[in-house]
Write a structure and sequence with these properties.
Length: 222
């Protein structure tokens, strides 16, 4: 009897060891890796430099881009221009196949200060399901034009690198701009000038960062 029990236990151990692992693949910056890089923790957005801040609805336009939640760029596509059109904003990448993508916090971004579960993600080393790259510049087009725009931006991988941000009016003139030096704690960027803002370009010009994330996008009147 003891031999039968021992034989059964041996067979059970062999089956467990031979069984495939179905755990979710680990990832960093939206790309699958073999080792866990550590995940960023979502936190409340700072309102220190947030004239348009406050939990929605707050009387201004808002999107936390929290509609999709794939972990990996390989399983998603760039933002579609018309996704947020009914809310007064459209997103446009540098080409038909390239542009920022919405990813879940499960992508391992090592950032804080975003309002989970999702972020608008950039990574020039990644490839999306359509063969394109999640790269900037990403243009936010507002209809109608707005008085001010605010969003949070950060990176756990490219700390110290630069992202150029520009706000322009309907004639293409520069309304406001910022050169953001990235940190792992997402920073608030506030853009406003003497003319209304028709579009905001994130990641153009002197940008040298490859990997970064945007969240908490507000637009309206402070």
């Amino acid at each position: 009897m003891k031999r039968v029990v021992l034989l059964c236990l041996t067979l059970m151990c062999a089956i467990v060891l031979a069984a495939p692992a179905f755990a979710e693949p680990r990832s960093v910056n939206g790309m699958a890796v073999s080792e866990d890089p550590g995940h960023g923790d979502a936190g409340e957005m700072s309102t220190e430099l947030a004239p348009l801040g406050g939990p929605p609805p707050s009387g201004v336009g808002y999107t936390g881009v929290d509609d999709l939640d794939p972990c990996f760029f390989l399983n998603t596509f760039p933002m579609m221009k018309t996704w947020y059109k009914p809310y007064g904003v459209q997103f446009k990448g540098p080409s038909q196949t390239d542009g920022a993508a919405v990813l879940g916090e499960c992508g391992g971004w090592a950032i804080t200060g975003f309002t989970g579960p999702n972020i608008l993600a950039f990574n020039c080393l990644a490839t999306m399901a359509n063969g394109g790259q999640p790269i900037g510049p990403e243009t936010l087009i507002f209809s109608p034009a707005v008085d001010a725009v605010q969003f949070s931006i950060g990176s756990g991988a490219d700390v110290g690198f630069l992202v150029r941000v520009e706000a322009r009016n309907a004639d293409g003139g520069l309304v406001d701009s910022a050169n953001v030096t990235l940190t792992a704690a997402m920073q608030n960027v506030f853009l406003m000038g003497n003319k209304k803002i028709k579009k905001v370009v994130i990641g153009g010009g002197t940008t040298n960062a490859c990997i970064y994330a945007v969240d908490n996008i507000y637009w309206g009147t402070p």
